[in-house]
Amino acid sequence: MQGVAQQPVVQLTVLQPSSETMQKIAGHKGCATQGGSGKASCGSGAGQGDLAPEIWEKIKNHPCYSEEAHHHYARMHVAVAPACNIQCNYCNRKYDCANESRPGVVSEKLTPEQAAKKVLAVASTIPQMTVLGIAGPGDPLANPAKTFKTFELIAKTAPDIKLCLSTNGLMLPDRVDTIKNFNVDHVTITINMTDPEIGAKIYPWVYYKHKRYTGVEGAKILSERQLQGLEMLTERGILCKVNSVMIPGVNDKHLVEVNRAVKSRGAFLHNIMPLISAPEHGTVFGLTGQRGPSAQELKALQDGCEGEMNMMRHCRQCRADAVGLLGEDRSAEFTTDKIMDREVDYDLETRKAYQEKVEEERQAKVAAKQAELETLAGERSDIKVLVAVATKGSGRINEHFGHAKEFQVYELSTAGAKFVGHRRVDLYCQGGYGEEDSLDTVIRAINDCAAVLVAKIGGCPKETLRKAGIEPVDKYALEFIEQSAIAYFREYVEKVKTGEIQHVEPGDAAIRQGALVAA
Ligand code: CLF
Ligand code: SF4
Question: Which end of the chain is more exposed for a tag (fewer CB within 10 A), N or C?
Answer without folding.
Answer: C
